[in-house]
Amino acid sequence: MKELGQEHFYNIGVSYKKADAETRGKFSVSKENQIALLKAAKSNGISSLFIISTCNRTEIFGFANRPCLLIDLLCDFSEGTPKEFTAISNVYKDQEAVDHLFKIGTGLDSQILGDYEIVGQLRQSFKVAKAEKTTNAFIERVVNSVLQASKKVKNQTKLSSGTTSVSYAAVQYIIKHLPDYNSKNILVFGLGKMGKHTCKNLAEYTQNKQICLINR
What we know:
Blueprint: E1 8-15, H1 21-26, H2 31-43, E2 49-53, E3 57-64, H3 67-76, H4 82-88, E4 89-93, H5 95-105, H6 117-131, H7 137-156, H8 166-177, E5 186-189, H9 193-205, E6 211-214
Helix pairs in contact: 5-7, 6-7, 8-9
């Protein structure tokens, strides 16, 4: 593992594995705050990092002397606290951080195994970081390798042959467990990409017209 001075490549974050939806919401970072976080990192001497924030996870990957520097950044730009983070977090260093990124990008760490929505989110997160000049050659190579691996997994394995998104799984659950689902009132909570995809799947797989949308 290549080091920059005394720095190491860290991953710090929270995900559905240890944190419930309410707690994950506290650590969610808006798009505006993601950019602000990257700018603040540069001002504090942390020049190489990117952040992913979705409904299922908020993760920071980057180089730092100590992981607490990245944890403090996350808490500064979200509603979470270091104490809450410690109870439900994951912290990986060097090769473990790289391995974790590969698991995320190939759908192995998704709530629904093989969910590839995260690939687009990863690509967008890296694009934002690159625009803010908070990436380096190492991060760019690793992210590109993850995206290539994800493509191979999708095209050369059967990992994506079943249910491959939370939004699709939710609609299929409704269809399977509610025989009269077309006459039920359905509430979709959240107007982000997941909410959009859920509505799209509802429209495609059901005839239900009684759908209400609300945001956080």
